[in-house]
Amino acid sequence: MTTEPRPKRRRWLRIAGLVVAAIAAAHGIAVCFGIVISWPFDVALNLGGDVSETALHAPADGRRRVVVLQHGLWRTPASLGRLERTLRAHGYEVHNPGYPSTRASIEDAAVLLHAAVERIYAPAPVDELYFVGHSLGGLVIEQYLRGPDARPVTACVYLATPHRGAVLADLRKHWFLFPLLMGEAAASELSPGNALHQRPIPAAEVSGTIVGDLGEGNRSIPGRDDGTVAIGEAALTGARDSVTLPLSHTAISYSPAAILQVLHFLRHGGFARVAEPR
Fold first, then answer.
1. What is the pTM of this model?
2. Where are the beta strands (DSSP E) in 51-191?
3. pLDDT band at residue 127 using 50, 70 and 90 as cut-offs
4. Distance from the CA of 213 to the CA of which of 67, 122, 161, 228 falls in 20 to 30 A?
């Protein structure tokens, strides 16, 4: 049995290192110029068929029911494409505005959301206004709702949103690649110690949380988590309802199980009961 010569092995390691460096540099340049390179990834994950459940269709009573979506960090509106299509097929008017998550602060993103909501109201009044946010998108929604001129909300659904910050952000913020990949605005505000997380969270009484649970998905995070956000971080004190699903932080944004729960909450004001993961 022969072993690979060391010079050849070192050469492959150098090539691998150069490839990683090139990818990181390309993403850094993309972030600087506002180019989001996760779009193909987001599209691919959301190619699945629309989720259909006739019983969860919005009432056909002529009321204007609007759902506004907000994607997470390093993602695009395409990351909620399957959810968007499904909600529209179930009788909702859906708006899925994006924001530069690696360049804008949560406060800046909330300003963009405010402008998007006002454009929705421009042509005609809205009878029911719903928000659905994945991860950081949920924090953007909460910041928007803190504004004195926020529109009255009917209900909110949060998908794996770390309402008071995520410990993983503290653990990773000193990595040299962290600001390059995630930016230095909203990503830094994910730290649980950020003053943003000391503010009251509006509309908790009409909100629902969908929490991912992979057990000890990430050993850097104490306790159970979805690989990125701890179960306790995705909990919202005073929420109307909460459901836990055995899904990862990314999968919870496009999984049929999670999408059905969103539909159930919008239709009935609560989630369908499921067996808790062990």
1. 0.84
2. 65-70, 93-95, 128-134, 155-159
3. very high
4. 67
